[in-house]
What does this fold into?
Amino acid sequence: MAKALSKRVSLVELFYDLVFVYMVSRATGLIHHLHNGVVSLPTLAIFFLVIIVFINSWMVQMVFTNRYGRSSWTNIIFSFIDMAIVLYMSNVFTATFDRHLATFFIAAGLLSLTLCLQYLITYFQVHKAADKRIARAFSWILGFRTVTLLIGGLFYNAVGITIALAGIIVSWIAPGFTGHHTKHHPIIFSHMLERLTALIIVMFGETIVGIADYFTQETFSIQSLLIFIIVVGLFFTYIVEFDHLINEHREGETGNLLIYLHYFILFGLSLVTVALKFINEPEADQTFAISFLYLGMALFYLGLALANHYNHRHLVVTTPIRICFVLSTLVGYVLSLLFPSFATVTLVAAVVVVLNAGVLVNFLTRRQAAQQ
It folds into this structure.
């Protein structure tokens, strides 16, 4: 393969990622507010909508940089423009379908337009037929999203909102069907893995901020430590999979599965972040708070399970390990529902997370020993 199999993550890319620290905080803040003890369905819908728009835009930019990015003034200027738009977008949505969402649609449309322009410019710069097909496909996807979002923002009524939502969903799913084009110019797997791992660390940073209230002089207790153990256990499980089990030197990959499985991890972490607050709030419905916590954990573990596709051949997680994860999580959920006190819920969740992390570490240790 003529293409280099490694690529350094640039400082401009890392600087670009910083705006998503604020974005994640603002988006997660949507589901921090309870209504009659639960998070309302419209609020959840807006949360998922906002996250999909932001993260999908980040993913598209990341994939573009992976294939065609270079240290040119054009790419750097586009990155700074996108950062400014993302910062503005982070402050124009609320937890309801009000007029603020129209402004969000317009800003998201402009962000999609800048991404579309990058691919259009690339279309006229590249010479290989495969690269032209890739650039054309993504230009159509991003152009479609630009038009639908601008329609939704400029004509903010039932029809306009429906068109904007359809554009978001279609443009979110469509890149997954471009594999017949992108397989002819595979991504640099190690670069993509590094960028995605950095994004997840940002998400864990938001989780740490979310549990900080448990570590004051007035609130610190044994439950504070158990909650910290839950976060550390999830982080450790992620690191074992993506830093030890996965084969970062894979070749010929489109990266589509790696991208989409991270949505499960991102949504899972967001739910865990807010649920760790809900389980100690008197106004929260405990069944809802517990379900929120374990749904987040389940989504997180599902993302890790899908990542097994990229593991070293001798480190593909076996069925008994998967069954252990499923059973421990289900048992933990049932026990928490039966004994819904704050002390019991934190203890059970900590045990579940530590058990799953320990099982995965033991699997890794035994497989590594067998290879020696």
Remarks:
- Residues 342-371 form the longest helix (30 residues).
